[in-house]
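Lecture notes, unit on binding sites. The following record was shown on slide 14. It pairs a sequence with AHG.
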Amino acid sequence: MASAERGQTKYQVNLRRYLRESGVDRDLIRIICEIANASKYIINAIRTGDLGVAGTSNLYGEQQLALDVLSDRIIQKRLMFSGVVAKMASEEVDEIVEVTVPTNGRYSVAFDPLDGSSLVDVNLAVGTIVSIYEGDNLLQPGRNQAASLYVLYGPRTTMVVSTGNGVHEFAMNQLMEFDLVQENITLEGPARIYAPGGLRSKYTEGTEKFVRSLEASGTKLRYSGGFVPDINQVLIKRGGVFMYPHLNGLPSGKLRLLYELNPMAYLVEQAGGAASNGKQRILDIEPEGLDHCAPVFIGTQESVALAEQFIREQEG
Ligand code: AHG
Ligand code: MN
Ligand code: MN
């Protein structure tokens, strides 16, 4: 397997080469590299684009697209012409997106082109989340994913990816290519940080008790309001828990199974962590539609088991 360091010589291993040397299927590599390419344009739009609202025009009289719509177009186009994608689903589109150009696509891709786009105006980190399945069925349990990844647009642009063989981090270099930063990120032990989404006053008894137990054991609060940076922190700091629980009045929480939860659950499980809706493994949920939402507790196995225990005791 490729490594950032061999013997005494340190050198960069880029994303494509790393995946190739890991024996990943060629078409799957193509999809991951198309996303890597798309992210160059997305980060450029985030950094330099007007914070225009969809439907308004810019200095040159051109129609402006909101950044999430623009990101969606960029990714759709790259996947559409990749020749290896059968079907697509985007958080920005209500229906499955058919690939209208000739393709031998053996994979289907669900993506959230720009998660947390409402954080761009306050200059906080945002991300792209991608879930990949073999075949043309996007409505199946997340455990069947062939790969998942996210790109985080923070002070640096990074990609965290798994093709079912551990979780690896890459960072965009001056040439806007992704180089390996670290292989086999793992999550262990109790949570040292926690990221609680949703209004606390709407928490149910089980979640409230879980959060109190985290506070009592000195777990630090680290919540940015962006799912990608919040999960990235849990992974890179190697121990934490993120939740967007079921709320009073919002029993399915906020986050979407297809575009947000399944890809993140796949990565976190690949890192040795767990993801649950409080009662059931996220990756075992049968999606009922493209917009299926579920509560989520995701992070180290120990912390997710604790959340499940409080919910079972308090809520049955
Ligand atoms: P999106 O921008 O794709 O609609 O979703 C944002 C998500 C996610 O990034 C974050 O965890 C959550 O919304 C935050 O929601 P609250 O503002 O309700 O805490
Ligand atoms: Mn989202
Ligand atoms: Mn989005």
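Take-home: The mean pLDDT is 93.
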